[in-house]
Amino acid sequence: MRWLLVFLLASLIFSGLNQWLRKIGLGRLPGDFSFRWRGREFHVPLASSLVLSLIAGLIGMLL
């Protein structure tokens, strides 16, 4: 249950920072999905969330 909450929170953060993160290459990884439904575009950043989680984990281990 905790992982679901973390994933949803990461998805919300990623959606808000989508344009900036695309400039540095995140959001276009092979595991990131985008689809359009009823005139709205949805992003499911699976691979980018994993990369950001690994980076945050490494930073947490170093501190």
Summarize the structure.
The chain has 63 residues and is of the alpha+beta class. It has three helices and two strands; from the N terminus they run ααββα. The chain has a two-stranded antiparallel ribbon.
Mind sketching the topology for me?
Blueprint: H1 2-16, H2 18-23, E1 32-37, E2 40-45, H3 46-62
Antiparallel strand pairs: 1-2
Structure commentary:
60% of the residues lie in helices and 19% in strands. With 63 residues, the protein is α+β, with helices and mostly antiparallel strands. The longest helix has 17 residues, at 46-62. The chain has a two-stranded antiparallel sheet. The model has no long low-confidence stretch (mean pLDDT 80). It is globular. It has one domain (2-62).
